[in-house]
Amino acid sequence: MAPIAVGDSLPDGTLSFFDENDDLQNVSVHSLAAGKKVVLFGVPGAFTPTCSTKHVPGFIEKEAEFKAKGVNEIFLVSVNDPFVMKAWAQTYSGNKNVKFLADGAAKYTHALGLELDLSEKGLGIRSRRFALVVDNLKVTVANVENGGEFSVSSADDILKAL
Asked: Thioredoxin domain location, by residue (predicted)?
């Protein structure tokens, strides 16, 4: 399957998260993104070094700049269960607006065509690192990394593309 690209419609799928009342929610991606401009970025795994120290903090720290450029919401997706994603989100005390979404079985990652097989490293099927800008379910920016690189999907890269 070809990776998602500019001009594609964002596929629908179900992702999970814990809401402010600590209730597990399963939510349709389309219900989150329809009628909005959103950033959807993905990482290979929670608590991994590049993801935790570079990729995620950039989007949290620059959230106001994204809002100023018309972005309504920022979503992070990772192939982890919702309990891991909740624990990971809690490590970012300053985060109020990046929603951590779990793709436990990598089904949504597969629908995006962005799976990365890290079985040789003991991690199984994960997500390639990526960042998308989606305007009313249409992809307008698609920055997808090769392998484990971190060169085109940072918050700064996406802000430049907006």
From this structure: 4-162
